[in-house]
Amino acid sequence: MASVSTPARQVAAGSRRPAATDRSRSSGGTGWLFATPFLVFFTLFLIVPLGIGLWMSFTNSSLTGHGDGTFVGLDNYTEALGDSQVWETLGNTVWFTVLSTVPLVVVALVMALLVYTGMPGQWLWRLAFFASHLLPVAVVYQIWSMLYQPDRGMLNGLLQAVGLDGVTWLTDEKVAMWSIALVTLWWTVGFNFLLYLAALQAIPDHLYEAAALDGAGAWRRLWSITLPQLRRTTGLIAVLQVMASLKVFDQIYLLTKGGPNGSTRPILEYIYDTGFTNYRLGYASAVSYVFFAVIIILSIAQLKIFSRGED
Amino acid sequence: MSGLSRRGLLRGAVYGAGAAVTASALSGCGSLAGSVTSADDIQYWTLFTGPDGVLMKTITGGIEKRVPGLKVRTTVLDWGPPYYTKLAMASAGGRAPDVAIMHLTRLAGYAPGGLLDPWDTDLLAEYGLKQEDLNSTLVKRSLYQGAPYAIPLDTHPFIVFFDRDVLDKADLLTTDGQLMPFESPQHALEMMDKLRRSGGKLGPVLGHVNDAAMGWRMFWTLFSQTGATFDLTGKRAEIDEDTAVEVVRFMADLTRDSRTMDLQTANAAFATGRSPLIFAGEWDMATFKPTLKDRLGGSPFPTFYDRPAGAADSHSLVLPHQDNPDPERRRRTHRFVAELVKSGLTWASAGHIPAYTPAVSSSAYARLSPQSQYAGAAKQLALDPPVWFAGSGSDFQTRMCQALDPAFAGSSSAASAVRTMISQINTLMAQPNPA
């Protein structure tokens, strides 16, 4: 045993030595080693399913195991492009993204500016604005389904107290998506607020001092220093937010199940229903890939908009 | 969840004569060795949670005590689309449970695709469960190509619950405490106005807002009462549109006090006495009984049109497909199901109407109130159309409810709701059956 293990150990030691002494030459190898666990999971649970999903989208696979593997070419994609449900739910998703992203960026910025510019007790504001972000979606749903209750809900109670008519928050086709966006704003704005607050704290003080010496007022400083300095953060938040909003599913599924009359049904719910309730996996995969393409196009467009003027 | 099955894991004995007969077919699974291991447990999937789940656990435990060697491992899964997804995947993937609960209306999406195995009715009869002792409407619906693919445990129809005192005051009860029959939709609306005046409260309510089934149940009940055409057997839906519009209009008029009510709010309105009458599922009996006590009345869904009907479904037992089922295990599964269905009387305490007719006609059942008062609903069952995409927990029901909701709320016309429904149905009909 000993005679075998000694050379082996020498080999091991020999191979290890350069790594310890010459970092630049072997860092690639060590890096791969550290990245391996991640890469394994990334491949197993993301790349492989993506590939399988792509293959499935060209077949008529069903969840019940029938029609498996039968190649149907672009049939599913043709069907998806002509399916009014795909376009309606995609429209709903984009509409939600618009309704939610704009306030989630603007309100977060305003909140961060208010807190940063001399509000006493910053920790309290940070906690208060971020707290709702910590709630699980099921709790958010419970709270808001009560607030939105037309007969006994607090929101209508407030409206009626000031002499206004109550609103059917979740059952009026024209109102429901706004209501969902409001819930989303309340729930997730804290995260963007924190990002903005961190970015504000990173703006060097000497910029403001120089501006003050030049006689710039508060508005001038905001427009000429703060906002341009926040450009990168705004770009980041906007991109993250658009991605998050396009992926909307849970709060809608819980609050309205896509109703009334499908007016809040996001495309992910349609994919879910097609694949898991109606068992048409092949078709659901094709719709997913159509949606995937839309996300990529939107992301590239957005990156281009925000990177313009930075160079 | 599976606590039941562990209790007597090693207590079992040789199953019985049946085991000896079929033993040659077994490959050393050990049933002759005289011990029952956890591998011999019957795997049983249910969707019963809450009080239903507790009751099912009690019944299963009782059967295990009565039948030596029979052990059941129950897996409770959350009811709804996810349950059926899992069941379909388990059957397709070859790791199906031995027996599972399925809504009878889902059969059309499962049996034709080979996801289920048929029952052996002779074997069930051997264990004392004869087909003629089961509700005939349900038995008829459980057939696929002549073979029984489901054994109904109960039926759970859409009915009405009411407050006896208030209805009595409004002269809406017969002398034996039953709901007064209505002559026509118009008559019903007049009576409901009378009810509102005499109670000084809301009229009838229905919790349909953003619900995935209630609106459809109401529509399907009323439409079925008209007997008009609703044919989904061809390539496109053939539906009597005028009648559908009329029904939707009536439905919105009838429930005008619950335009904005979701299920919880409507149930609360009834349970707290704000509304004296509610269109609900019999499974809500347990919600109302504690507050209304003896004042709680129940009745089959009233006949407003030409013939009695009430939307309904049935918790049925199915054999998810197994490639090489162990014959001895199948026998035990049949035994278990026979015992389960015959325990209908206990199951009835949850409000469900047993499919096992001797249980319903027993004197013990007659003493259950209000169950015995609405038991007649089992004679007027309107199950979903037998197409692959319909049934409880289906996308179809959700879409129908969403199409109907604006009409209930008065924000769109009955005609536009019906148009949406029909176009949704045609979209689903154009899709291939995935099973």
Automatic annotation (TrEMBL), chain A:
Keywords: Cell membrane, Membrane, Transmembrane, Transmembrane helix, Transport. The chain crosses the membrane at residues 32-56, 94-116, 123-144, 175-198, 281-301. It is a multi-pass membrane protein. InterPro entries: ABC_transporter_permease (IPR051393), MetI-like (IPR000515), MetI-like_sf (IPR035906). Residues 90-302 form the ABC transmembrane type-1 domain. It holds the Pfam family BPD_transp_1. It is found in: Cell membrane. Residues 1-27 are annotated as: Disordered. Belongs to the binding-protein-dependent transport system permease family. This is Sugar ABC transporter permease.
TrEMBL record, chain B:
InterPro entries: Bact_solute-bd_prot1, SBP, TAT_signal. It comes from the Bacteria. Transmembrane segments: none annotated. SUPFAM superfamilies: Periplasmic binding protein-like II. PANTHER family: ARABINOSE-BINDING PROTEIN-RELATED, BLR3389 PROTEIN. This is Extracellular solute-binding protein. It comes from Streptomyces luomodiensis. The lineage of its organism: Bacteria, Bacillati, Actinomycetota, Actinomycetes, Kitasatosporales.
